[in-house]
Amino acid sequence: MTETHATITSGAPVFPPGRYGRRREPARRRPALVALLAVALVAALGVAAFSEYNKYGDPDYDAQVITYTDITDSQVVVDFRVTVPAGGSAICALRARSHDGAELAREEVTVTAPAGESQVTARHRLTTSARPFIGEVVRCRPAG
After folding, report:
1. Cα–Cα distance between 106 and 23 in angstroms, integer?
2. What are the helix (H) ranges across 9-138?
3. What backbone phi and psi angles, to 5 degrees, belong to 6?
4. CA nearest 98: which of 67, 66, 79, 74?
5. Where does 11-118 show beta strands of DSSP type E?
């Protein structure tokens, strides 16, 4: 008969020797390395976002539709306001869509602000292939 011990001095379980193979040591944690990698990832994403915003996001060229009127079976007139750098020009893409969202017309219009002014109001008539539901400014970008 073998003797069993009623108390185990350490908190680790006791396994019979040779039965379950060699026990692995717990992995060493490296919180400083994980934190450093997280900071590097956030910095890289920040640089990428800033670069893409500078390339594609241009807050100097902002357009607002004031109204769209004179809707017939073949046209819509769009009145819009564009914010540009003082005395600058912009090329704005306008489009007309039907009630179901289909694009009926698309045109690019160049608008130029008077010297010293940063806003220009323009009116443009889009000739459509069917009766439009809405006229809108898709985007504006620097001219040239």
Report:
1. 71
2. 31-56
3. -75, -25
4. 74
5. 62-69, 75-83, 89-97, 103-112
Cβ neighbors of 15 (< 8 A, separation 6 or more) are 23
Q: In what order do the strands lie in the sheet with 75-83?
A: 62-69, 75-83, 119-127
- Yes or no: say if 82 and 63 are a contact pair by the CB < 8 Å rule: yes
Q: Answer for the pair 92, 84: CB distance below 8 angstroms, yes or no.
A: no
Q: Does residue 50 sit in helix, strand or coil?
A: helix
Prediction pTM value = 0.59
Both tokens of 37, joined, read: 């990698």
Each residue of 51-94: pLDDT tens digit?
888 777 666 788 899 999 999 999 999 999 999 888 889 999 99
Inter-residue contact 140 to 63 (CB < 8 Å): yes
Residue with tokens 């915003």: 53
